[in-house]
Amino acid sequence: MSTFFLIALPTSGIAYLVLALLVGGESAGLPLPGETALITGAVLASQGKLALPAVVATAAAAAIVGDNFGYLLGRQGARRLLSRPGRFETARRRFLQRGEAFFERHGAKTVFFGRWLPFLRVTAALLAGAHRMHWPRFLAWNALGGISWAVSVGLAGYVLGQAAAAVLHTAGLVVAGALAIAVLVLFGWLKLRG
Hints:
This protein has 194 residues and is mostly helical. The protein has helices spanning 5-8, 13-28, 34-46, 52-83, 89-113, 118-130, 135-193. The radius of gyration is 20 Å and the shape is globular.
């Protein structure tokens, strides 16, 4: 799913709402382009179409709320599914025991740093809930991670958006196209070598 439709949205609250839904949905465990939406919003802010503080605040709040919803889904739904009697019950219960021990030792790091890793960004909250990470601890590290992620990725998107606009304005589309082709050729050459 592409987030470039954000560009066509009016600069009213609709763009921020779409950003919140994509980031929150991804954080809750849905395979949505939340980080791509944040980057797109930040690039649009670099062009004056959105406000960067509002983009960052929207993404941070949506990440925190989405993660807490994912935590509840993991705590109630996933936990129940994994602990139910039936086929592979022993393996599933062993998975829960190992996961609980892991989240006891490394839960804070997993929740915090998981914001920057694509697979963990979608699953960390569900796993934390399913493995009974203490909610106040989860909430603290989730909030810290969500805010840090939104600020760092939002600022990177903003700066890259400004830099890309400056390059395109100064050098023109021909130079940018030639550079893109050169990068693709280099990438293909490296793939063939490796």
